[in-house]
Amino acid sequence: MYSFDYGYFARTNGPTGGSTSGSTSSSSVSVIVPPARSGFDSYLQKLHRDMHHEDLGAYCSQEKFSPEFVTSVKHRYASITPGSMEPIFIAINLHNNEHILPNMATQLLALADTLGHDRIFISIYENGSRDKTKEILHRFNETLNTLDIAHRIITDPVSKPEHIHRIEYLAKVRNAAMEPLYSSGEKYGQVLFSNDVFFCLTDVLELLLQARAHGSHLTCGQDFFELRGEPAFYDRWVARDMTGEVLIEELYKISKDDITMAAQMRDRPFQVQCGWNGMVVIDAKVFRGDDGVRFRRSVEGECSASECSLICNDMWRKDFNRLVTVPRVKLTYELRVRNLLRTPKHFPADIPFNPPK
C-alpha cells in the first residue's frame, strides 16, 4: 500500500497486533505490513542492534522532520504513485556491505510500495563477501519472493582475481548486475544504479522527479566522505562540471564555474559533463540495442578512466547529453559521515520544499 512513510522499519501498532510501517507520530501514515515484511524488518532490526547499537530506521523517519516538511514532501511526490511511471530497473553491486544493507533493503521495499510491486525489477550482483552480506541477501531474496517483487540476486563466492585490471573488473561486475536488462525485451523506463550508500526513499523519488522534470538522460546525487571533520565531495575521479573541470572536495567551493556554484549553494539541479556520485538514474534507452552503451575499460588512445566516466563519454558521443546533478540528494558510505552531513549546517532537512521549477 502506498505511503510516504519513507520505508523505515515496521512496528506493532497496539494490542490488536496490526502493524504500521513508520513512525507513531501524528504525521505518519499507517499501512498494512505483510507478515513477510514484518519478519524481515525484525531480522534487520536485530542485526543492527548487534552491529551498530542503533535503529537505522530513525534515519528516514518522519519523527526526524517537521510536520510542514512532511506535508511538502507528500505534495512534491504526489505524482509518483503506482503505475504512474514506466517500470524501473534497479542495479546494485555489493561486496562486504553488511553495514549498509539493512538500510538499503528497507528503502528498496519502500520504493516497491511507492511505485508498485509490479513496476520494479531488482538486480543485485554480490561477490566475494566475507561478512553477513550473503546472509542478508538470502533473507532479502526470500522476502522479495513472498512479496512478489521481480528480482535476480546472485551471490558469487569468487573475489576479484589479482591479475585482472581493476576497471576491467568493475565494468564486468556492473554489467553482470545489468545483464537482466540487457537480455530482456521488457521496456524499462529508467535504470536506478546504486553504489553501497545510505539513502532514503525520498532520495530516489527526488532523482526520479528531476529526471522527469528535465528530461535528463542521466540524473545523479552527490556523495560525501569526511575530511578534517567536515563532509567533503567524494566522487572526484568521475564528476565533471560543464567546463570539464574536476569538482572540488570542499562542499561550498565545489566548482570554479559560477553557474554550477549558484545552483549548488541553493540545492538546485545543474547540468554536468559527467556524474555518478553514489546513485544515478539513467534513461533505459541509453542501453538498448546491439550498440547500446555498456560499462567498459578505456581502450587504446583513451585516457585511463573510471568505467562510470566512460559511460558518460559514450553517452555524449551518442547524443545522450542531458546529464544533471541534484545536490539535494546527499549520500554517504559511512554512518559517521551520514550523521555529520544531516546536521542543519549542511543539510536543510527541516526546510519545506518550494514548488518545483
UniProtKB/TrEMBL annotation:
Task: Identify this protein by name.
Answer: Alpha-1,3-mannosyltransferase CMT1
Instruction: State the PANTHER family in the record.
Output: ALPHA-1,3-MANNOSYLTRANSFERASE CMT1, CHROMOSOME 8, WHOLE GENOME SHOTGUN SEQUENCE
Q: Which domain of life is it from?
A: Eukaryota
Q: Where does this protein come from, organism-wise?
A: Coemansia pectinata
